[in-house]
Amino acid sequence: MNEIMPWVNSILLLVVAWLLARKDQKQGDDIAQLYALHHDNEKQLADHRLKIAENHYPKPEVDNRFMQLETTIKDGFRSLSTDFKEMTKALHDHLSSSHHSGQ
What we know:
Radius of gyration: 43 Å
Helix content: over 70%
Structural class: mainly alpha
Strand content: under 5%
């Protein structure tokens, strides 16, 4: 029996070493898959950022659009101011004429 124990211990050690090596190999494969997935995700993210950037207006075009908007607003307020002045003058003239005719 004492002669068999070293053989049993050796076999157990070989089985444990083989199981550990197999576990290490599986973990290595899992890490390689995760790295490949990470690399793919990085590429997809970079492509997505590029698409987002392509869909945005370049700064000069944005500046130009804001200048057009500002000009439109200024012209609108100028026109509105003129309309108010004309309406005020018409109301003043009307009130003046009815005040003078009522005296």
